[in-house]
Design brief:
By secondary structure, the chain is of the alpha/beta class. Helix content is 46%, strand content 10%. Among the domains are: 77-131 and 371-381, no CATH class; 212-278 and 298-325, no CATH class. The protein has 13 helices and seven strands. The strands form two sheets. It has a five-stranded mixed β-sheet, with helices on both faces. Strands 1-2 form a two-stranded antiparallel sheet. Helix 1 packs across helix 13. It is elongated and about 100 Å long. The two termini are 32 Å apart.
Protein backbone atom coordinates (compact mmCIF):
# COMPACT_ATOMS: atom_id res chain seq x y z
CA UNK A 1 0.00 0.00 0.00
CA UNK A 2 1.11 3.57 -0.65
CA UNK A 3 1.34 6.11 2.17
CA UNK A 4 -0.79 8.78 0.47
CA UNK A 5 -3.42 7.86 -2.10
CA UNK A 6 -4.41 10.33 -4.82
CA UNK A 7 -8.16 9.66 -4.55
CA UNK A 8 -10.13 8.88 -1.41
CA UNK A 9 -13.57 7.28 -1.28
CA UNK A 10 -15.43 7.61 2.04
CA UNK A 11 -17.90 4.91 3.07
CA UNK A 12 -19.48 5.91 6.46
CA UNK A 13 -20.82 3.29 8.87
CA UNK A 14 -23.68 5.40 10.33
CA UNK A 15 -26.23 4.90 11.69
CA UNK A 16 -24.62 3.26 14.74
CA UNK A 17 -26.14 -0.16 15.50
CA UNK A 18 -28.76 -0.09 18.30
CA UNK A 19 -26.91 -2.68 20.38
CA UNK A 20 -24.46 0.00 21.60
CA UNK A 21 -25.65 1.16 25.03
CA UNK A 22 -26.25 4.85 25.70
CA UNK A 23 -23.49 6.53 27.69
CA UNK A 24 -20.58 4.63 26.18
CA UNK A 25 -17.95 6.48 24.10
CA UNK A 26 -17.65 5.41 20.49
CA UNK A 27 -14.38 5.83 18.57
CA UNK A 28 -14.48 5.41 14.82
CA UNK A 29 -11.40 3.55 13.50
CA UNK A 30 -11.25 3.54 9.70
CA UNK A 31 -10.15 0.52 7.70
CA UNK A 32 -8.46 1.28 4.41
CA UNK A 33 -8.34 -0.71 1.19
CA UNK A 34 -6.55 0.56 -1.91
CA UNK A 35 -7.27 -0.05 -5.59
CA UNK A 36 -4.39 0.53 -7.99
CA UNK A 37 -5.43 1.35 -11.54
CA UNK A 38 -4.29 3.22 -14.64
CA UNK A 39 -5.58 6.74 -15.24
CA UNK A 40 -7.57 7.44 -18.41
CA UNK A 41 -5.03 7.58 -21.22
CA UNK A 42 -4.91 10.33 -23.81
CA UNK A 43 -2.00 11.81 -25.68
CA UNK A 44 -0.84 15.38 -25.06
CA UNK A 45 0.05 17.84 -27.83
CA UNK A 46 2.79 20.38 -27.13
CA UNK A 47 3.08 23.31 -29.53
CA UNK A 48 6.42 25.10 -29.83
CA UNK A 49 6.39 28.69 -31.08
CA UNK A 50 9.27 30.95 -32.01
CA UNK A 51 9.07 34.72 -32.21
CA UNK A 52 9.79 36.32 -35.57
CA UNK A 53 10.66 40.02 -35.65
CA UNK A 54 11.28 42.24 -38.64
CA UNK A 55 13.85 45.01 -38.36
CA UNK A 56 13.28 48.50 -39.80
CA UNK A 57 15.89 47.65 -42.41
CA UNK A 58 13.71 44.78 -43.61
CA UNK A 59 15.74 41.91 -42.16
CA UNK A 60 13.81 39.23 -40.26
CA UNK A 61 15.05 37.74 -36.98
CA UNK A 62 13.69 34.41 -35.72
CA UNK A 63 14.02 32.32 -32.59
CA UNK A 64 15.22 28.72 -32.71
CA UNK A 65 13.13 25.59 -32.22
CA UNK A 66 14.50 22.86 -29.92
CA UNK A 67 16.90 20.55 -31.71
CA UNK A 68 14.54 17.56 -31.53
CA UNK A 69 11.61 19.51 -33.04
CA UNK A 70 12.31 19.45 -36.76
CA UNK A 71 8.88 19.01 -38.37
CA UNK A 72 5.60 20.92 -38.40
CA UNK A 73 3.93 17.89 -36.78
CA UNK A 74 5.84 14.96 -35.29
CA UNK A 75 5.69 12.32 -32.59
CA UNK A 76 7.42 13.02 -29.30
CA UNK A 77 10.15 11.04 -27.52
CA UNK A 78 7.76 9.15 -25.23
CA UNK A 79 5.76 7.69 -28.13
CA UNK A 80 8.89 6.74 -30.04
CA UNK A 81 10.44 5.26 -26.89
CA UNK A 82 7.32 3.14 -26.34
CA UNK A 83 7.46 1.92 -29.95
CA UNK A 84 11.11 0.90 -29.63
CA UNK A 85 10.55 -0.73 -26.24
CA UNK A 86 7.63 -2.83 -27.49
CA UNK A 87 9.42 -4.04 -30.63
CA UNK A 88 12.97 -4.50 -29.39
CA UNK A 89 12.45 -5.56 -25.78
CA UNK A 90 8.96 -7.07 -25.65
CA UNK A 91 9.45 -8.64 -29.12
CA UNK A 92 6.22 -7.37 -30.73
CA UNK A 93 6.18 -7.18 -34.53
CA UNK A 94 6.06 -3.69 -36.02
CA UNK A 95 2.40 -3.87 -37.12
CA UNK A 96 1.23 -5.13 -33.73
CA UNK A 97 3.23 -2.39 -32.02
CA UNK A 98 1.43 0.26 -34.07
CA UNK A 99 -1.88 -1.33 -33.09
CA UNK A 100 -0.88 -1.49 -29.41
CA UNK A 101 -0.01 2.22 -29.38
CA UNK A 102 -3.42 3.01 -30.87
CA UNK A 103 -5.28 0.80 -28.38
CA UNK A 104 -3.36 1.90 -25.28
CA UNK A 105 -2.78 5.59 -25.92
CA UNK A 106 -5.08 6.55 -28.77
CA UNK A 107 -2.11 7.42 -30.98
CA UNK A 108 -2.40 6.15 -34.55
CA UNK A 109 1.11 5.72 -35.91
CA UNK A 110 2.12 4.01 -39.12
CA UNK A 111 4.41 1.01 -39.32
CA UNK A 112 6.87 3.27 -41.13
CA UNK A 113 7.01 5.57 -38.11
CA UNK A 114 7.68 2.61 -35.82
CA UNK A 115 10.49 1.38 -38.08
CA UNK A 116 11.94 4.88 -38.36
CA UNK A 117 12.01 5.11 -34.55
CA UNK A 118 13.87 1.79 -34.36
CA UNK A 119 16.48 2.89 -36.90
CA UNK A 120 16.98 6.24 -35.16
CA UNK A 121 17.32 4.61 -31.74
CA UNK A 122 19.95 2.19 -33.06
CA UNK A 123 22.01 5.09 -34.37
CA UNK A 124 21.70 7.07 -31.14
CA UNK A 125 22.63 4.10 -28.93
CA UNK A 126 25.55 2.76 -31.00
CA UNK A 127 28.24 4.73 -29.07
CA UNK A 128 26.82 3.52 -25.74
CA UNK A 129 26.84 -0.09 -26.94
CA UNK A 130 30.46 0.38 -27.97
CA UNK A 131 31.14 1.28 -24.33
CA UNK A 132 29.55 -2.02 -23.28
CA UNK A 133 31.86 -4.07 -25.51
CA UNK A 134 34.89 -2.16 -24.24
CA UNK A 135 33.82 -2.67 -20.63
CA UNK A 136 33.34 -6.41 -21.19
CA UNK A 137 36.94 -6.72 -22.39
CA UNK A 138 38.05 -5.56 -18.93
CA UNK A 139 35.82 -7.93 -16.92
CA UNK A 140 37.40 -10.84 -14.99
CA UNK A 141 34.75 -13.36 -16.13
CA UNK A 142 32.56 -13.10 -19.25
CA UNK A 143 29.97 -15.55 -20.57
CA UNK A 144 29.80 -16.27 -24.31
CA UNK A 145 27.21 -18.00 -26.46
CA UNK A 146 25.86 -18.02 -30.00
CA UNK A 147 22.62 -19.10 -31.62
CA UNK A 148 21.30 -19.52 -35.15
CA UNK A 149 18.95 -16.86 -36.57
CA UNK A 150 17.59 -16.08 -40.03
CA UNK A 151 17.71 -12.96 -42.18
CA UNK A 152 15.18 -13.63 -44.89
CA UNK A 153 16.10 -17.11 -46.08
CA UNK A 154 19.78 -16.78 -45.21
CA UNK A 155 21.26 -18.27 -42.02
CA UNK A 156 22.79 -15.78 -39.60
CA UNK A 157 24.28 -16.00 -36.13
CA UNK A 158 23.43 -14.09 -32.98
CA UNK A 159 26.49 -13.78 -30.72
CA UNK A 160 26.44 -12.85 -27.05
CA UNK A 161 28.92 -11.70 -24.42
CA UNK A 162 27.52 -10.98 -20.97
CA UNK A 163 28.07 -10.62 -17.25
CA UNK A 164 25.72 -10.14 -14.31
CA UNK A 165 25.33 -6.43 -15.17
CA UNK A 166 26.10 -6.15 -18.90
CA UNK A 167 24.88 -7.75 -22.13
CA UNK A 168 26.26 -7.33 -25.64
CA UNK A 169 24.74 -8.84 -28.79
CA UNK A 170 26.27 -9.03 -32.25
CA UNK A 171 25.06 -10.24 -35.64
CA UNK A 172 27.27 -12.02 -38.16
CA UNK A 173 26.89 -14.42 -41.07
CA UNK A 174 29.63 -16.61 -39.55
CA UNK A 175 29.66 -18.51 -36.28
CA UNK A 176 33.39 -19.01 -35.72
CA UNK A 177 36.63 -17.07 -35.45
CA UNK A 178 35.90 -14.59 -38.23
CA UNK A 179 32.85 -13.34 -36.33
CA UNK A 180 34.55 -13.38 -32.93
CA UNK A 181 37.49 -11.38 -34.30
CA UNK A 182 35.24 -8.79 -35.92
CA UNK A 183 33.42 -8.08 -32.67
CA UNK A 184 36.68 -7.18 -30.92
CA UNK A 185 35.82 -8.51 -27.45
CA UNK A 186 37.79 -11.77 -27.30
CA UNK A 187 40.94 -10.50 -29.09
CA UNK A 188 43.07 -9.13 -26.26
CA UNK A 189 40.66 -10.37 -23.56
CA UNK A 190 42.65 -11.44 -20.48
CA UNK A 191 39.87 -12.66 -18.19
CA UNK A 192 38.10 -16.02 -18.09
CA UNK A 193 35.77 -16.92 -20.96
CA UNK A 194 32.88 -19.18 -19.95
CA UNK A 195 31.33 -21.05 -22.87
CA UNK A 196 30.10 -24.44 -24.05
CA UNK A 197 33.25 -25.68 -25.75
CA UNK A 198 32.72 -24.38 -29.29
CA UNK A 199 36.16 -24.95 -30.82
CA UNK A 200 36.89 -21.40 -32.17
CA UNK A 201 36.92 -20.05 -28.60
CA UNK A 202 40.02 -22.12 -27.86
CA UNK A 203 42.03 -20.01 -30.32
CA UNK A 204 42.07 -17.10 -27.87
CA UNK A 205 44.82 -16.89 -25.27
CA UNK A 206 42.59 -16.11 -22.29
CA UNK A 207 41.67 -18.70 -19.66
CA UNK A 208 38.56 -20.76 -20.37
CA UNK A 209 35.84 -22.49 -18.35
CA UNK A 210 33.33 -24.97 -19.74
CA UNK A 211 29.61 -25.21 -18.98
CA UNK A 212 29.07 -28.19 -16.71
CA UNK A 213 25.29 -28.03 -17.11
CA UNK A 214 25.90 -29.23 -20.67
CA UNK A 215 28.15 -31.99 -19.39
CA UNK A 216 25.44 -33.14 -16.99
CA UNK A 217 22.87 -33.31 -19.79
CA UNK A 218 25.24 -35.31 -21.97
CA UNK A 219 26.08 -37.65 -19.10
CA UNK A 220 22.38 -38.22 -18.41
CA UNK A 221 21.93 -39.20 -22.07
CA UNK A 222 24.82 -41.68 -21.79
CA UNK A 223 23.34 -43.19 -18.63
CA UNK A 224 19.96 -43.63 -20.32
CA UNK A 225 21.31 -44.92 -23.63
CA UNK A 226 24.28 -47.08 -22.57
CA UNK A 227 23.79 -47.73 -18.82
CA UNK A 228 27.53 -47.23 -18.26
CA UNK A 229 28.11 -46.83 -14.51
CA UNK A 230 30.95 -44.32 -14.78
CA UNK A 231 28.59 -41.71 -16.29
CA UNK A 232 26.28 -41.73 -13.25
CA UNK A 233 29.31 -41.59 -10.95
CA UNK A 234 30.63 -38.56 -12.88
CA UNK A 235 27.23 -36.87 -12.50
CA UNK A 236 27.36 -37.48 -8.75
CA UNK A 237 30.93 -36.16 -8.58
CA UNK A 238 30.13 -32.92 -10.43
CA UNK A 239 27.00 -32.30 -8.36
CA UNK A 240 28.86 -32.97 -5.11
CA UNK A 241 31.58 -30.53 -6.15
CA UNK A 242 28.98 -27.88 -6.97
CA UNK A 243 27.34 -28.24 -3.56
CA UNK A 244 30.71 -27.98 -1.84
CA UNK A 245 31.62 -24.90 -3.87
CA UNK A 246 28.30 -23.25 -2.98
CA UNK A 247 29.06 -23.75 0.71
CA UNK A 248 32.59 -22.49 0.20
CA UNK A 249 31.33 -19.33 -1.53
CA UNK A 250 28.83 -18.75 1.27
CA UNK A 251 31.73 -18.99 3.71
CA UNK A 252 33.61 -16.22 1.90
CA UNK A 253 36.29 -18.41 0.32
CA UNK A 254 37.83 -17.84 -3.10
CA UNK A 255 38.56 -21.50 -3.88
CA UNK A 256 38.17 -24.97 -2.44
CA UNK A 257 40.88 -26.27 -0.16
CA UNK A 258 43.77 -27.64 -2.30
CA UNK A 259 43.28 -31.12 -0.85
CA UNK A 260 39.63 -31.12 -1.98
CA UNK A 261 40.64 -29.91 -5.42
CA UNK A 262 43.12 -32.79 -5.70
CA UNK A 263 40.43 -35.24 -4.64
CA UNK A 264 37.97 -34.15 -7.33
CA UNK A 265 40.58 -34.12 -10.06
CA UNK A 266 41.93 -37.55 -9.05
CA UNK A 267 38.45 -39.06 -8.85
CA UNK A 268 37.62 -37.58 -12.26
CA UNK A 269 40.73 -39.16 -13.80
CA UNK A 270 39.76 -42.55 -12.37
CA UNK A 271 36.28 -42.37 -13.89
CA UNK A 272 37.63 -41.19 -17.23
CA UNK A 273 40.09 -44.10 -17.30
CA UNK A 274 37.18 -46.52 -16.90
CA UNK A 275 35.24 -44.70 -19.60
CA UNK A 276 38.14 -44.90 -22.05
CA UNK A 277 38.27 -48.68 -21.68
CA UNK A 278 34.55 -48.93 -22.41
CA UNK A 279 34.69 -46.46 -25.30
CA UNK A 280 37.93 -46.96 -27.24
CA UNK A 281 38.93 -44.97 -30.30
CA UNK A 282 37.12 -46.14 -33.40
CA UNK A 283 39.55 -47.44 -36.07
CA UNK A 284 38.88 -47.37 -39.78
CA UNK A 285 37.36 -50.56 -41.13
CA UNK A 286 39.87 -52.69 -43.10
CA UNK A 287 37.62 -52.49 -46.15
CA UNK A 288 37.64 -48.68 -46.11
CA UNK A 289 41.37 -47.95 -45.92
CA UNK A 290 41.07 -45.91 -49.11
CA UNK A 291 39.04 -43.23 -47.30
CA UNK A 292 40.73 -40.10 -46.03
CA UNK A 293 40.03 -37.68 -43.20
CA UNK A 294 39.17 -38.13 -39.56
CA UNK A 295 37.22 -41.15 -38.41
CA UNK A 296 33.85 -40.35 -36.88
CA UNK A 297 33.86 -41.18 -33.17
CA UNK A 298 30.92 -41.98 -30.92
CA UNK A 299 29.09 -39.36 -28.85
CA UNK A 300 30.33 -40.96 -25.64
CA UNK A 301 33.94 -41.07 -26.83
CA UNK A 302 33.88 -37.37 -27.72
CA UNK A 303 32.54 -36.39 -24.30
CA UNK A 304 35.09 -38.57 -22.50
CA UNK A 305 37.89 -37.06 -24.55
CA UNK A 306 36.70 -33.54 -23.74
CA UNK A 307 36.52 -34.28 -20.01
CA UNK A 308 40.07 -35.64 -20.20
CA UNK A 309 41.83 -33.12 -22.47
CA UNK A 310 40.04 -30.07 -21.02
CA UNK A 311 40.00 -31.09 -17.38
CA UNK A 312 41.41 -27.72 -16.28
CA UNK A 313 38.52 -25.91 -17.96
CA UNK A 314 35.94 -28.40 -16.64
CA UNK A 315 37.09 -28.06 -13.03
CA UNK A 316 38.06 -24.38 -13.01
CA UNK A 317 35.05 -23.55 -10.84
CA UNK A 318 36.57 -25.38 -7.85
CA UNK A 319 39.87 -23.48 -8.13
CA UNK A 320 38.39 -20.02 -8.72
CA UNK A 321 35.01 -19.21 -7.22
CA UNK A 322 34.52 -16.27 -9.60
CA UNK A 323 33.86 -18.93 -12.23
CA UNK A 324 30.33 -20.39 -12.16
CA UNK A 325 29.51 -24.07 -12.47
CA UNK A 326 27.62 -23.49 -15.72
CA UNK A 327 27.01 -21.00 -18.52
CA UNK A 328 23.41 -20.32 -17.53
CA UNK A 329 24.00 -16.57 -17.52
CA UNK A 330 24.57 -16.62 -21.28
CA UNK A 331 21.75 -19.09 -21.91
CA UNK A 332 19.27 -16.86 -20.07
CA UNK A 333 20.48 -13.77 -21.91
CA UNK A 334 20.17 -15.34 -25.35
CA UNK A 335 16.79 -16.99 -24.74
CA UNK A 336 14.62 -13.88 -25.16
CA UNK A 337 16.22 -12.70 -28.43
CA UNK A 338 15.52 -16.18 -29.79
CA UNK A 339 11.86 -15.53 -29.00
CA UNK A 340 11.99 -12.64 -31.46
CA UNK A 341 12.51 -15.11 -34.28
CA UNK A 342 9.72 -17.40 -33.08
CA UNK A 343 7.28 -14.48 -33.09
CA UNK A 344 8.32 -12.71 -36.29
CA UNK A 345 9.77 -15.64 -38.24
CA UNK A 346 12.95 -13.88 -39.30
CA UNK A 347 14.57 -10.50 -39.81
CA UNK A 348 13.83 -8.95 -43.20
CA UNK A 349 17.26 -7.36 -43.60
CA UNK A 350 20.71 -7.52 -42.03
CA UNK A 351 20.32 -3.90 -40.92
CA UNK A 352 17.22 -4.90 -38.95
CA UNK A 353 19.09 -7.62 -37.05
CA UNK A 354 21.99 -5.26 -36.38
CA UNK A 355 19.61 -2.60 -35.06
CA UNK A 356 17.97 -5.20 -32.83
CA UNK A 357 21.36 -6.27 -31.43
CA UNK A 358 22.34 -2.66 -30.71
CA UNK A 359 19.11 -1.70 -28.95
CA UNK A 360 18.81 -5.02 -27.14
CA UNK A 361 22.38 -4.71 -25.82
CA UNK A 362 21.53 -1.32 -24.33
CA UNK A 363 18.15 -2.25 -22.86
CA UNK A 364 19.26 -5.64 -21.49
CA UNK A 365 22.20 -4.00 -19.70
CA UNK A 366 19.93 -1.37 -18.13
CA UNK A 367 17.42 -4.02 -17.10
CA UNK A 368 20.12 -5.97 -15.26
CA UNK A 369 20.84 -2.80 -13.30
CA UNK A 370 17.13 -2.23 -12.49
CA UNK A 371 17.00 1.02 -14.43
CA UNK A 372 13.96 2.49 -16.23
CA UNK A 373 14.04 1.44 -19.88
CA UNK A 374 11.39 3.68 -21.44
CA UNK A 375 12.72 6.74 -19.62
CA UNK A 376 16.22 6.00 -20.93
CA UNK A 377 14.92 5.60 -24.49
CA UNK A 378 12.94 8.85 -24.26
CA UNK A 379 16.05 10.69 -23.07
CA UNK A 380 18.01 9.23 -25.98
CA UNK A 381 15.47 10.67 -28.43
CA UNK A 382 16.01 14.10 -26.86
CA UNK A 383 19.77 13.81 -27.41
CA UNK A 384 20.91 12.57 -23.98
CA UNK A 385 21.98 8.92 -23.85
CA UNK A 386 22.17 7.46 -20.35
CA UNK A 387 25.38 5.49 -19.80
CA UNK A 388 24.71 1.72 -19.77
CA UNK A 389 27.70 1.02 -17.54
CA UNK A 390 26.99 0.18 -13.90
CA UNK A 391 27.94 2.71 -11.27
CA UNK A 392 31.33 2.10 -9.68
CA UNK A 393 31.00 0.34 -6.35
Amino acid sequence: MVAEAEIYGAHPTWPVPRIIRVGFCISVLPEGRQVIDLPPTRFAVTEHRVQIAQCACGKRHSGVFPGNVSQAVQYGPQIRAAAVYLTQYQQLPVARTAQALADLFGVRVSTGTVQQSIDEAAGLLAPAVKQISEALREQPVVHFDESAMRVGRAPYWLHLASTRTLSWYGAHHKRGGQALDSFGILPGFTGIAVHEGWRPYAAYACDHALCNAHHLRELVFIVESTQQAWAQQMIDLLCRAKREVDLSVAGGNRALDPSRQRYYRRRSRELIARARKLNPTQARAPTRVDLRGRIRQSFTYNLVRRLQTQATEVWRFIADHRVPFDNNQAERDIRMPKLKQKISGCFRAVSGMQAFCTIRSYLASLRKQNRALIDALALAFTGFVVSPLPAAE
